């Protein structure tokens, strides 16, 4: 996982900070996506991560509410 994270960090750093200073005719540009994806992809990943966290929290809250209902119904019986 550390190797993958390092590779992604190196790729993104070169894409965002080095590539703008290289000529457009250089062959290095063929290894990278267009620059507008440098903003779109992290935003999409952030959005999906936030959705995943919100879904997890929602499921936990629903399960806790169901457990509380069961406890209350057992106490009244």
Automatic annotation (TrEMBL):
Subcellular location: Endoplasmic reticulum membrane
GO cellular component labels: dolichol-phosphate-mannose synthase complex; endoplasmic reticulum membrane
Membrane topology: Multi-pass membrane protein
GO molecular function, one term: enzyme regulator activity
Pfam family, one: DPM2
GO biological processes: dolichol phosphate mannose biosynthetic process; GPI anchor biosynthetic process
InterPro entries associated with the record: DPM2
The protein's annotated pathway: Protein modification; protein glycosylation
Transmembrane segments: 42-62
Keywords: Endoplasmic reticulum, Membrane, Transmembrane, Transmembrane helix
Role description: Regulatory subunit of the dolichol-phosphate mannose (DPM) synthase complex; essential for the ER localization.
Subunit details: Component of the dolichol-phosphate mannose (DPM) synthase complex.
Similarity annotation: Belongs to the DPM2 family.
Listed name of the protein: Dolichol phosphate-mannose biosynthesis regulatory protein
